[in-house]
């Protein structure tokens, strides 16, 4: 009984009792999406690889679909050491006080996975991760999901179609500004609550890559989906820093290898998963999928362009300029 209390106390302090003992090290990995999404599959892949490469010394327990923690609670739980790993969307770091990650939310800032990769694989990606360390968090990798599209209960062909609509967003000021800029009413809400909010009319619409929309069955409660692909959604894989640093060096190295393989896997499957989800949504016949014309897409770009400048004070003008430079993005072309 007494030993159990000591173990609990150490765990609560984010210290690794198991790391110094011979027994198995358990890593709790919590996330909010379904198992059959790019992130869900990559987390399960990491659990498999971690077990293989450490020859069973490490057991990664994955808790999908907010079964352990919801959006708001999971960051806190990570800092306390109640959970060891997370992979929150880059749009969810504001409440932690690291608002620079919200640069990833700027509309149309990446025109594809390649330009995104220039940021995440380069010095900018690294310097953003470093901002987490004073918070007791270590960033291990960036994992892709994909590009978000708007859905609602009425057709969306122009930005004006979203005017006055209540739109669920993640906890990002950039996303808030994005919605306000086109006249929508943004509502921050945990991912686990979105389906019900759409079903009951608490909100009229939302935005997400199709893999998230489909696996949460949002297409059953949204009549229209327009493939605007107006913003990126990706993840930072995080660990409790104290826990990570307390692992035996050889084990940590094996886990780093497992993470490297998992990152490659995650970024390989993301697009395919979203393409498959789109096909499944179309086949379901529950929502009308609209492919905007080039002229309509341009309208969305033009309407959302002011968000970049408006958010300079939030995420940092210098950071935004550095991203433009890295990707070759020209804001004048929006
Ligand atoms: C959301 O909350 O809309 C998504 O970021 C969920 C996720 O983690 O993909």
Describe this entry's structure for a reader.
It is a single chain. The chain is α/β, with parallel strands linked by helices. The protein has one domain (2-327): D-Maltodextrin-Binding Protein, domain 2. It contains 15 helices and 9 strands. The strands form 2 sheets. Strands 1, 2, 3, 4, 7, 8 and 9 form a 7-stranded mixed beta sheet that branches. A two-stranded parallel ribbon has the order 5-6. Strand 1 (25-30), helix 3 and strand 2 form a beta-alpha-beta unit. The radius of gyration is 20 Å and the shape is globular. The N and C termini lie far apart (63 Å). The model is unreliable at 1-21 (pLDDT under 50). (2S)-2-hydroxybutanedioic acid is lined by residues 32-33, 39, 89, 145, 170, 191, 208, 212, 233. The site of (2S)-2-hydroxybutanedioic acid has 10 residues, from loops.
Summary?
By secondary structure, this protein is of the alpha/beta class. It has 15 helices and 9 strands.
Give the count of structural domains.
Answer: 1
CATH class: Alpha Beta
Assembly status: single chain
Tell me, rounded to a whole number, the average pLDDT: 94
Percentage of residues in DSSP E strands: 15-25%
Low-confidence stretches: 1-21
Distance between the termini: 63 Å
| Helicity, as a percent range | 40-55%
CATH architecture: 3-Layer(aba) Sandwich
Rg from C-alpha positions?
Answer: 20 Å
Total strand count, please? 9
CATH superfamily: Bacterial extracellular solute-binding protein, family 7
Helices and strands in order:
Layout (H helix, E strand, L loop, with lengths): L1 H11 L4 H4 L4 E6 L7 H16 L4 E6 L7 H10 L4 E2 L26 H8 L2 H8 L6 E16 L13 E4 L3 H9 L3 E4 L5 H7 L4 E4 L1 H6 L8 E17 H5 L3 H36 L3 E3 L3 H11 L1 H5 L1 H4 L1 H11 L7
Parallel strand pairs: 1-2, 1-3, 5-6, 8-9
Antiparallel strand pairs: 3-8, 4-7, 4-8
Bound molecules: (2S)-2-hydroxybutanedioic acid (LMR).
């Amino acid at each position: 009984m007494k030993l159990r209390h000591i173990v609990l106390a150490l765990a609560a302090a984010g210290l690794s009792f198991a790391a110094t003992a011979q027994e198995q090290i358990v890593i709790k990995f919590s996330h909010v999406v379904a198992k059959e999404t790019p992130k869900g599959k990559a987390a399960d892949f990491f659990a498999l690889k971690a077990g293989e490469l450490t020859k069973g010394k490490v057991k990664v327990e994955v808790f999908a679909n907010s079964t352990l923690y919801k959006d708001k609670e999971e960051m806190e739980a990570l800092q306390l050491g109640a959970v060891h790993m997370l992979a929150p969307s880059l749009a969810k770091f504001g409440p932690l006080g690291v608002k620079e990650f919200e640069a990833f939310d700027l509309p149309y800032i990446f025109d594809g996975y390649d330009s995104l990769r220039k940021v995440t694989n380069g010095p900018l990606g690294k310097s953003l991760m470093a901002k987490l360390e004073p918070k007791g968090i270590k960033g291990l990798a960036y994992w892709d999901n994909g590009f978000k599209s708007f859905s609602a209960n009425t057709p969306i062909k122009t930005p004006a179609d979203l005017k006055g609509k209540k739109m669920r967003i993640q906890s990002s000021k950039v996303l808030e500004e994005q919605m306000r800029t086109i006249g929508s009413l943004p509502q921050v809400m945990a991912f686990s609550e979105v389906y019900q909010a759409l079903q009951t009319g608490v909100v009229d619409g939302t935005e997400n890559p199709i893999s998230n929309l489909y696996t949460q069955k949002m297409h059953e409660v949204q009549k229209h989906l327009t493939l605007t692909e107006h913003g990126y959604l990706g993840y930072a894989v995080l660990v409790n820093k104290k826990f990570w640093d307390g692992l035996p060096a050889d084990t940590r190295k094996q886990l780093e290898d497992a993470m490297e393989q998992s990152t490659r896997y995650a970024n390989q499957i993301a697009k395919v998963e979203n393409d498959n989800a789109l096909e499944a949504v179309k086949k379901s016949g529950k929502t009308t999928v609209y492919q905007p014309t080039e002229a309509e897409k341009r309208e969305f770009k033009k309407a959302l362009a002011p968000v970049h400048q408006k958010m300079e004070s939030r995420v940092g003008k210098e950071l935004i300029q550095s991203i433009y430079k890295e990707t070759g993005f020209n804001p004048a072309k929006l």
